[in-house]
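<goal> How does this chain fold?
<body> The protein record starts here
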Amino acid sequence: MPPTWAALYGALLQSLNRRSSEMQFAVLRAHFPDLDRFHTMPALLDHQHGVGGDPAPRFHTIRVLVTAAQSDESFASLACTLTIIALWPGLDGVHARVCRDFPKARAEMAGDVLSGIAAAIGTLDLARVAAVAGTLVANVERDIRRGLLAAERQARRMRDIDDPQVAAALAYIPDDDIGSAPDSLALLGALSGTDAELLRRILCLGETQEEAGRALGASHEAARKRCQRAFRRLRANIT
């Protein structure tokens, strides 16, 4: 069973209690004088989780931590962990909102948010971003939502062969070479990506050859010829 959101937070905090983490934090402070005023990791995190006052020092600390996390130094992993925990209030909001909007994805959401923020920290272009903390949190939510929406669209497209709309579409396929339509659908994996997508649109979505070709950037005549070749390949696999 995937770990819960709270369990992941507890595991991250626990990782800071190791002696190796304390030693790495000392090296991190030595490399980045702006962090030297934080004598312990809890002191740094308390500062980042504070409310009120001028937020500029907190934003600057996040930028320093991300810079350290993107380095090739031994403390990079620790700096990434500290960044994630420092951003946790914002990430907690992301987790709650996405779980609310995509309840079926709740079980995997904790891992998705954690892996998403780790990737975002490693790839953020600091030279082009002013608001580092806000950008990281916003990018994670945007990317997760995009992925979930794409998955939902794909699921809607891949209808079951018993769907009445699919059965009606199959009844209007005027080609003797396709063999058994259900077998043909099962064998789409034998085709190239474009050919498989072309037939999927015709067999599963009920599009005409012209409509399917237009969606894939091909003329009606080109789509018709591709369909004929693809049907012949399917027939060869069936027989």
Q: What stands out?
A: The CA atoms of residues 6 and 103 lie 17 Å apart. The chain has two domains: 5-155, 164-238. Residues 169-187 have pLDDT under 50 and may be disordered. Residues 164-238 form a domain with the Arc Repressor Mutant, subunit A fold (CATH 1.10.10.10).
